From TrEMBL:
InterPro entries: Anti-sigma-K/W_factor, Anti_sigma_zinc_sf, RskA_C. This is Regulator of SigK. It is a single-pass membrane protein. Signal peptide: none annotated. It comes from Microbacterium aurugineum. The chain crosses the membrane at residues 119-139. Keywords: Cell membrane, Membrane, Transcription, Transcription regulation, Transmembrane, Transmembrane helix. It is found in: Cell membrane; Membrane. It holds the Pfam family RskA_C. Residues 121-258 form the Anti-sigma K factor RskA C-terminal domain. Coiled coil: none annotated.
Length: 264
């Protein structure tokens, strides 16, 4: 047995998932190669860490489903998937050649499964990331980034991407990103104060003297990335006002803008 085969068995042993035959092969290899004990210790430590108590946190169902889907997609027959053409060839072959075809396929089939360690790693990710709240949040953000982040990435990748930045009174900054070809605009604010309870920030496209509401947004620790709703037109300025929670009840600004970014 080579070391690569042993690594697979060691992962299975740490998870207590070896068959009786694989268990015998694993113990025999370990007795023959004591220098591989480090691999056993590392896998045992990893498996033990999965059992460490953590405060239960219910992660979004799609996170668990996404990881389990990856596990389910791993080949269960030594890293190869069934080949319908090959199966058909054996079935349709003359009787005299069927045994030769079967023997050929048997020779090509790996003797040792190669998916144990992948399952080991994915199981660790599932247990640790879902079991720890902050990990679940981070994974959720990676699997499902906010629409504003997706829009910002689309704009930055566009050939006609443009941006304009203004300084805020409190020392922060606000940058408008837009692209005519993408048809979207995003405001990124850094160091913007959190609005008072019962208030929110509202975005506006300002066309001449006519403001058009472009949605409201929240602030997280002084930072905000907000996708403006509606269609931006050439020459529009982007403004932000402080309004009551939910946005202006009149559809028009009720306060002076705290941010104004010209785009022309």
């Amino acid at each position: 047995m080579n070391e690569k085969d042993f690594v697979e068995l060691a992962a299975g042993a740490a998870l207590h998932s070896l068959s009786a035959d694989d268990e015998r092969r694993y113990l025999a290899a370990l007795a023959e190669h004591p220098e591989w004990e480090d691999t056993v210790d590392e896998d045992a430590a990893t498996a033990a860490s999965l059992a460490d108590p953590v405060e239960p946190v219910t992660a979004p169902a799609h996170i668990r489903s996404a990881l389990l889907a990856q596990i389910a997609d791993l080949p269960q027959d030594g890293g190869t998937r069934s080949d319908p053409d090959a199966t058909s060839a054996i079935t349709d072959a003359p009787v005299a050649t069927q045994s030769d075809a079967i023997d050929a396929r048997a020779e090509q089939k790996p003797k040792q499964r190669r998916w144990t360690r992948s399952v080991f790693a994915l199981a660790a990710c599932l247990a640790v990331l879902v079991g720890v709240g902050i990990g679940a949040v981070a994974l959720n953000q990676q699997l499902n980034p906010p629409a504003s982040v997706v829009a910002l990435q689309e704009i930055e990748a566009a050939g006609d991407a443009e941006q304009a930045t203004v300084a805020l009174d409190d020392g922060g900054s606000a940058t408008a990103h837009w692209s005519a070809s993408v048809g979207k605009a995003v405001l990124v604010a850094d160091g913007i104060p959190t609005p008072a309870e019962g208030e929110t920030y509202e975005l506006w496209f300002v066309r001449g003297d006519a403001p058009v509401s472009a949605g409201v947004f929240d602030v997280d620790g002084g930072d905000a990335t907000a996708l403006l709703t509606g269609e931006m037109q050439a020459g529009d300025a982007i403004a932000v006002t402080v309004e009551q929670a939910g946005g202006s009840p009149t559809g028009q600004p009720t306060t002076d803008p705290v941010i104004v970014i010209p785009t022309a």
